[in-house]
Amino acid sequence: MSAAPSVNTPSSSSFDLAGWSQRHLARVEHALSRWVGEGAPAGLGEAMRYAVLDGGKRLRPLLVLAAEEAVCSGAEVEASAHAVSDGAALRAACAVELIHAYSLVHDDMPCMDNDVLRRGKPTVHVQFGEAQALLAGDALQAFAFELLTPDDGSVPDGMQAMLCRLLARAAGSAGMAGGQAIDLASVGVALTEDQLRHMHRLKTGALLQGSVMMGVACGPASAQAHEALSDYGAVMGLAFQVVDDILDVIADSATLGKTAGKDAASDKPTYVSLLGLENAQAYARELQVQAHAALARSGLADTRALAALADMVVDRTH
Amino acid sequence: MSAAPSVNTPSSSSFDLAGWSQRHLARVEHALSRWVGEGAPAGLGEAMRYAVLDGGKRLRPLLVLAAEEAVCSGAEVEASAHAVSDGAALRAACAVELIHAYSLVHDDMPCMDNDVLRRGKPTVHVQFGEAQALLAGDALQAFAFELLTPDDGSVPDGMQAMLCRLLARAAGSAGMAGGQAIDLASVGVALTEDQLRHMHRLKTGALLQGSVMMGVACGPASAQAHEALSDYGAVMGLAFQVVDDILDVIADSATLGKTAGKDAASDKPTYVSLLGLENAQAYARELQVQAHAALARSGLADTRALAALADMVVDRTH
């Protein structure tokens, strides 16, 4: 069942998202498989690879790559510059996925959500033990920044610095980790819609928006495009969470690949518990429209991949 | 009781390490206090500050600052360039301390060393709960990279990229996290001296050497100085661990500010269990001599602070 029944979906039907995703995911999977855990000692590499490979929708990497393509689409970019922004975007795409993966490893641990199932597989701490899971998460975060700072001259210094800055802010106490702390403190607490939105803007939104802005940082972007894609990223962060909350209610564990109904069981505030299911679905549609509107004012020549990803986020079933 | 009875200590007695440290530590403490946890929500900031402030010898920050001073000591540096390297070194000094602090928070958790006492205070998870401790460690790591990438133009892009690169490598699976994984896998295992050295080169050595090299990266360094200080950093990493193992045997918990005798109790291999106490003490002295020799071949005008820190590491009582 789709998260939000289609009412008046903006059309991006001329774009082949499946083909586009498949092409780009092949690059991401190949790069992750080549880079993650390489040479890590004493089982650490295996735990890191288990946490990252063969799993997940890779939404964040796709946002990075789609944003980089969009900002390059209007500009006259020489072949050499294009190779640089492509290479940087691939590294950025992998780096955000490493941050996402580490957060899941730590989230699943007994002292947090105590989840035993993730993407249909035993969670990392179940498979490798808690200590190794803790270390694997820590090492994945460090490796994200290592990926962004190659010493082979392939990514200009300024771009490396900007990518590290965006990722650190998105992952840290003003972003993902901060959102998780609010989440932790709000179990059983009746949040207002503003408080719930603030929590998710940090917990999920910061890294999704950060993904978009890291893609933007890999290419040439006007101030107008920069601002519009920042808005797009913020809306996508919200939409993703609203749909996640909806799916937690309407989907089953087999479809989700993780334990469904966890939010209600743990008395966590959600958009569904706050707004009700129908209003939450309507809100998801509204955010989809806002995402398309932001792209329309970017002034960029080709934002079709970003538009299709917005549709996918709202229409997804898992 | 000092870790290694003095036999033939290289002299750095003309240098006032206490005064030098006091001056530089004041800058580090002030900066950490201003920066760490600022604006972090839902108790996360308190846990981060508790983990970092008012504690520790700050050896790593001092190594960063001493190395930066050393590489600047020979060069003709304009006042403006000097302000840049000073500011960058202060950020680097704080960043390595954040990585060190996060590693202690995670190390102390029940699934790792399960320690309840650190620097004479309850450990972070005892004080704030396991979930918050996990998040605080994660947020501290992210914040280290945020500190290295200011967007105010105070640190050049190339320096930001280099500092992030050095820190990520030192903290990750080829450094600290990798060493911890080896440590985890070697409880109750009879390691050879080479294996023990490899473990510590990663677990403790990488971040100590990384501290020195981050200081070097903040100033102008010849290839000769770069290589010599890299050697100095590697030797310091080893010396620190050898002395740590000695102190775990000869000091008591009150002096150490943490639980003494943990290594023997947990059947972890140490330099003392491998070499015996007297040989371990002789090895510490030998490393001290090697550290001084590395400084002597650096070609730098003033390496007195680095020399005094080497003496302090070997002569320390806690």
UniProtKB/TrEMBL annotation, chains A, B:
Keyword check for Metal-binding: yes
Entry-linked CDD domains: Trans_IPPS_HT
Gene3D superfamilies per the UniProt record, alphabetical: Farnesyl Diphosphate Synthase
PROSITE patterns: POLYPRENYL_SYNTHASE_1, POLYPRENYL_SYNTHASE_2
EC number(s) from the headed UniProt entry: 2.5.1.1, 2.5.1.10
Pfam families: polyprenyl_synt
Domain of life, per lineage: Bacteria
GO biological process: terpenoid biosynthetic process
Swiss-Prot/TrEMBL keywords: Isoprene biosynthesis, Magnesium, Metal-binding, Transferase
Gene Ontology molecular function terms on file: (2E,6E)-farnesyl diphosphate synthase activity; dimethylallyltranstransferase activity; metal ion binding
Family statement drawn from the similarity comment of this UniProt entry: Belongs to the FPP/GGPP synthase family.
Stated name of the protein: Farnesyl diphosphate synthase
Species of origin: Acidovorax soli
